[in-house]
Amino acid sequence: RRRAPAHHAPDMASPLLRFINAHHVLNTMLILAYPAWFRTWARVTFPDNLDALELWEKQCGISCAVILLVRGLRAESLDQFVSTVFFYCKAVGAPLAYFADPLDPHGPGARCVAVYLALLLILHLFVGHPTHDWLPSKVVALTPRTFEDDVMSDKESKESAKASGKWKKVEWLVLFYANHDARSSHVAPTFAKISREFATDGLRFAKLDVARWPATAKRMNIDVEAIGRDAVVPTIMLISGGEERLRLPEVYDDGTRVKFPVQRARRVDIVKGFGLEERHAKTRPKDQDAKKRD
Questions:
Q1: d(CA 24, CA 27)
Q2: What is the pLDDT of residue 99?
Q3: Which of 59, 91, 165, 263 is the most exposed place for a label (fewest CB within 10 A)?
Q4: Given this model, what pLDDT does residue 155 score?
Q5: What was the pLDDT predicted at 180?
Q6: Own/partner pairs for 89-96, CB < 8 Å, 24+ apart?
Q7: Count of beta carbons in the 10 Å neighbourhood of residue 216
Q8: How far apart are CA 230 and CA 85, in angstroms?
């Protein structure tokens, strides 16, 4: 008897499922530790200090809400916004844990804030950002050798392949990322989704871990050691004929770069910046166009 085809979950489930991992669950638990444990303990132990504690909670809460509102409007993706929420909520938790313990003989808040900071340090050291490798995509993971053979060697094999009549132009959109980098983790789901929408035989998507292979990053003029607004990881690069055509963030001829967040990596920035709709239309098989017209 023939087995019925398996039904796959729709892609719309992925935005929710990718947040169910150790990084997001443990960060949420740490943030909830203040109202669930520190504040409850302070209410029972120091009932006379509740008015002062509530005043600090209101001040910190309002400040955090305003910052998150501004940051949310500028966020490149849902992943980046969630990461921003974690950062500021954990930052607010430290002073609140300090003021929740006002009568410690060793100094105000020493016990609570020591426990909180210890948990924060353990989380930072042992729980990294998710890689999202399991997300459905048409992104090929590259090594330095496959990068040279599949992406950069096209220029060398072009002439011989043209002579045989088998040469076909292939463009590669390559994501240069680092597993330990938070922003790379934010861009990965967006890049995976774009690959499912626009990948064809003539427009291919790939990624390369520059933290693991820094020599390849250096060759492509990607500074893996730059931090802050000077950081260029992740970099998205369009390569055609073995040569770089476009990149995000942009690098000028004199070596200067457009700094983040001036040049962002939202879905609309990637699609429009690299002209993916036009490139997809040119490289899409003709039989797909015929089916759509039918």
A1: 5
A2: 81
A3: 165
A4: 53
A5: 85
A6: 89/31, 89/64, 90/27, 90/30, 90/31, 90/120, 92/60, 92/61, 92/63, 92/64, 93/30, 93/31, 93/33, 93/34, 94/120, 95/56, 95/60, 96/34, 96/38, 96/39, 96/53, 96/56, 96/57, 96/60
A7: 20
A8: 23
Tell how strand 235-240 and strand 139-141 pair up: unpaired
Please report the beta strands in 31-178, taking only residues with DSSP state E, as ranges in sequence order.
Answer: 139-141, 171-177
- The low-confidence residues of the chain, meaning pLDDT below 70, are 1-15, 102-109, 154-168, 229, 251-263, 286-294
E-state strands within the chain: 139-141, 171-177, 203-209, 235-240, 243-248
Identify the pLDDT of residue 52: 83
Close Cβ partners of 127 (under 8 Å, ≥ 6 residues apart): 22, 23, 26, 27
Residue 19 CB contacts under 8 Å (≥ 6 apart), including other chains: 82
Parallel/antiparallel/unpaired status of strands 203-209 and 139-141? parallel
Degrees to nearest 5, angle at CA 72 with 181 and 119: 50
Using the structure block, give the residue that is written with the tokens 């993706």: 77
Q: Which residue(s) pair with 207 in the sheet?
A: 141, 175
Q: Say how far residue 202 (Cα) sits from the centre of its chain.
A: 26
Do residues 136 and 11 make contact, with C-beta atoms less than 8 angstroms apart?
yes
What's the pLDDT at 158?
A: 52
Under 8 Å between Cβ of 283 and 171:
yes
pTM of the model: 0.79
Contact 217, 176 (CB under 8 A): yes
Listed in sequence order, the residues at least 6 apart from 48 whose beta carbon sits closer than 8 Å to its beta carbon are: none
Token pair 């023939």 is found at 2
235 forms beta bridges with: 176
Helix, strand or coil, per DSSP, at residue 250: coil
**Strand 243-248's sheet: what is its strand order?**
139-141, 203-209, 171-177, 235-240, 243-248
